[in-house]
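Known limitations

Structure tokens in this collection are predictions and should be treated as such. Users comparing against experimental data should check residue numbering before alignment. To illustrate the layout, the record for Diguanylate cyclase (GGDEF) domain-containing protein is reproduced below. The input appears on top and the generated tokens appear beneath it.
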Amino acid sequence: MQAATEVRREYAARGRATPPQGMDYAVDTGLHGLGTRPSLPAYPVDLIELHESIANLLAAQENWEGAYAHLQTALRLARDHDCTALRLPEQHQREVAELRKAHEQALDASMRDELTATYNRRYLHRQLVDLLTDQVDIERGVAIALIDLDHFKDVNDTYGHALGDSVLQRVVSLLQVDLPDGGFCARYGGEEFVLVLPNISARQAVTTLERTRARVADHPWSALAGGLHVTISAGLVHHATHSGVGAVLPETDDAERQLRRADDLLYAAKRSGRNTVAYRKDGAIRLAGLDDNCR
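Generated tokens:
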């Protein structure tokens, strides 16, 4: 069921091997079959679905104990032989529909950065776990770029935090212009962002990031404030799949390791003078526009 899947994926995304004791049993032995159990009556809304919806909402709010309690209740009801008494009146069905809508909105909000409305670190890790460990359609590989605004502290100190917030919002809109299908931007923290570009070759990733860098540098920032100029630096890593339909990475080659690699390359870009994209080719660190013909 969706609630069980959400809880399990959340624990995986947070680096925890298993949910609380007993939850795996509920997930594997009971809730997996709720939708197909032949003894359940064929109507769209019942108490089982109500408890599942509540569990989803609680999981979105990171209330794991409460979510688990409702999962257990749903499992108990599914095992009840007298399921014919579980039907909800129409008014309650509407309440359940509203609850589900509220859950979807809460779940989406929990995956978004409040200031920039782009995805947040929580969403980033969940998606990277899927991309880097599942058999997904990433035939040409996955690129991950860690991006930092150059001298952003000076922007806040000179123009104030309100304008600094506007700069962050504008940068996010510029970062998302040239994304491939399935690509996304996430705020990593402060003035750092991550671009994830699935199903893209290493060369295409470098070209895409270089265009993004130039787009930010060439933006008319003085329209926000006189004398304002904003640039970005980026560290870019690319993982090439080992088969034509996607590949499973070794356990040590996880999302955190890829982000650490990107961070090392971001540091190299900063040391080189900023406003550039650093990546590796043939084991050596290269700078887009300086070591190739991207610019």
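For this record: Residues 233 and 274 are 5 Å apart (CA to CA). Strands lie at 142-149, 184-189, 192-198, 232-239, 277-281, 284-287. Please report discrepancies through the issue tracker.
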